[in-house]
Specification:
By secondary structure, this protein is an alpha+beta fold. It folds into two domains: about 290 residues, Distorted Sandwich (Beta-galactosidase, Chain A, domain 5), CATH 2.70.98; about 200 residues, no CATH class. The chain contains ten helices and 24 strands. It holds the Pfam family 60KD_IMP. Keywords: Cell membrane, Chaperone, Membrane, Protein transport, Transmembrane, Transmembrane helix, Transport. Belongs to the OXA1/ALB3/YidC family. Type 1 subfamily.
Length: about 575
């Protein structure tokens, strides 16, 4: 029975390792070679060339097909800006550039996030050049929509080419004074229709409101639809973690949600084969990568939310497009209508994403152990608010978890301590009944019953730790709050491997000490296998995130103290019992 218990413990450890490797391979890792970003933000590839109007028969159209309810009327191209310089917008969180042609966001740099832990350059979220395409597009299509123009997408007029929070106005939002920056783009048609596309930015917030105000001063009704979409090529995830020999990244692809189906993933290579095509009020679409996400959330037509069509497709250049289209909007002559949507591009901060759209916070993908992972993250946040350091937060969380599991683990360790105490008696029985296996098993079971020992209880502590270990791994890998988070001394990134391998060696040492406190196998072969295990797991942990190894060290250290105390207590009780029997 004891032999089976030991094999169960070994099996549980191997299953833990296997589940981690399996999880890595399921969604993650890409073969595309990494492409360096072009630092010159003002030079952007003309993505508008990839977006002819929806009424054109050109096969390369990236614009979603409009709902045309009347005979199409040709649009006349509006006057264009001679200067096609990109419009620069800088807030406290990002620096982005908007193309006057179509009003697309063609580049975005996240000022609060570095490109890498050894770089002071900002992380480039969106960009459009000859090496990489990842842009946020929006427009008006349909019967009179300017983005359905046969002559190409509209060229917007603008007040100036550079905006910052210095241009912002202070407004009252929910009882707080907030700086709000509006960047208006204007397009006028010969038919007397003026379209004002406005980007609204708020200080301290990542979401961007994109609204279209259609002022119909003409003599005929205006009809169109708003669309918003994200276009991305198949280049590698720039936010992917480097874990030494394991170059890991979380899911890279599309995602979408509705009130009925909160979170769904869609790989890029499935954009045509299993393409998204659904309608919902309160839905969203996104492109997800490691630590960061870009998402469109359909908004309101006037003051009412509209039912949007969510869809995905492949572009002619094999790029990936996921977006939404609003229902047809009719603006009678002499009337004004407004339609809007919200665009988010930045870190996967759960609290902000949760408020933006139902299910969008689930892009922080903690896998099938997400309930445990969310609890762990909440615990980490709680301690971080107190100590201000994620490393110490991991230590305090580990102590808390051990305290919660203390009653169950103590029972198990007490049973293991009794196994250690009766080990000499078992060895004597083995020598006495070694040839009679049935008799030996009977005597051994009687001994277990007499001493109230459960040999399988040694598996319980590890089985309890397995889901916590796996869930914490995903918390460390997916929570942008821990990206490049330092602890002390040489540990400057808890989400990456220990560069000096000190923590894995300490973990191996604590595992060896803990193993010595357990009852030793009677079989010499089993004893050799268990002595090798700390070495095996030390090598395995060399390439794991330092925060996860830190958790395991603290967990082992507390276990050593707990098990050592229980071992002494059980040995003392046994000694007192023997003395009582002798007297």
């Amino acid at each position: 029975m004891q032999q089976w218990a030991r094999f169960a413990i070994l099996g549980a450890m191997l299953v833990t390792a296997y589940l981690l490797i399996l999880a890595w391979q399921k969604d993650y890792g890409h073969d595309n070679a990494s492409k360096p970003a072009t630092p010159a933000a003002a030079v952007a590839h003309d993505v508008s060339a990839d977006i002819p109007n929806a009424q054109s028969t050109a096969a390369s159209s990236d614009v979603p097909q409009a709902q045309v309810t009347a005979a199409a009327q040709p649009n006349t191209a509006a006057p264009t800006n001679a200067n096609q310089q990109l419009i620069s917008v800088k807030t406290d969180l990002y620096h982005l550039w908007i193309s006057p042609k179509g009003g697309d966001i063609v580049r975005m740099e996240l000022l609060a996030h570095d490109k890498s832990k050894n770089s002071d350059q900002p992380f480039v979220m969106l960009e459009s050049d000859h090496q990489r395409t990842y842009v946020a597009q929006s427009g008006l299509i349909g019967l009179n929509g300017p983005d359905s123009n046969r002559n190409g997408r509209p060229n917007y007029e603008y007040e100036k080419a550079s905006f910052s929070l210095e241009d912002a106005k202070v407004v009252n939002q929910d009882g707080k004074s907030v700086k709000v920056l509006n960047v208006p783009l204007v397009y006028k048609t010969p038919e007397g229709v003026e379209i004002i596309k406005t980007f609204t930015f708020s200080a301290g917030d990542y979401p961007i409101k994109v609204s279209y105000q259609v002022l119909n001063r003409g003599t005929q009704d205006w009809q169109g639809q708003m669309f918003g979409q994200i276009k991305r090529d198949n280049s590698e995830d720039p936010g992917k973690s480097d874990q030494g020999i394991f170059t890991l990244g979380t899911f890279l692809g599309g995602a979408w949600g509705t009130p009925d189906s909160h979170y769904n993933k869609l790989k890029f290579d499935k954009f045509s084969e299993e393409k998204l095509a659904t309608e919902a009020t309160g839905g969203w679409v996104a492109v997800v990568q490691h630590y960061f996400v870009s998402a469109w959330v359909p908004g309101h037509f006037g003051d009412k939310p509209y039912q949007a069509k969510l869809e995905s497709r492949k572009a002619a250049d094999n790029s990936n497009i996921i977006g939404f289209t609003s229902p047809a909007i009719n603006v009678p002559a002499g009337k004004t209508m407004t339609v809007d949507a919200t665009f988010y591009s930045g870190p996967k901060i759960q609290s902000e994403l949760k408020d933006l759209a139902l299910g969008l916070n689930q892009t922080v993908d903690y896998g099938w152990l997400w309930p445990i992972a969310k609890l762990l993250f909440m615990g980490l946040q709680f301690f971080h608010n107190i100590v201000g350091n994620w490393g110490w937060s991991i230590i305090l969380l580990t102590i808390l978890v051990k305290l919660i599991l203390w009653p169950l683990s103590s029972k198990s360790y007490r049973s293991m301590a009794k196994m250690r105490v009766i080990a000499p008696e078992m060895q004597r029985m083995k020598e006495e009944f070694g040839e009679d296996r049935m008799r030996f098993s009977q005597e051994m079971m009687a001994l277990y019953k007499r001493e109230q020992v459960n040999p399988l209880s040694g598996c319980l502590p590890l089985l309890l730790q397995m889901p916590i270990f796996l869930a914490l791994y995903w918390v460390l890998m997916e929570s942008v709050e821990l990206r490049h988070a330092p602890w002390i001394l040489w540990i400057q990134d808890l989400s990456a491997m220990d560069p000096w391998f000190i923590l894995p060696l300490l973990m191996g040492a604590t595992m060896f000490i803990q193993q010595m406190l357990n009852p030793q196998p009677a079989d010499p072969m089993q004893a050799k296998v268990f002595k090798i295990m700390p070495i095996m797991f030390t090598v395995f942990m060399l390439f794991f995130p330092a925060g996860l190894v830190l958790y395991w060290i603290v967990n082992n250290s507390i276990t050593i103290l707990q098990q050592g105390f229980i071992n002494k207590s059980v040995e003392k009780q046994r000694l007192n019992k023997d003395n009582t029997v002798a007297n």
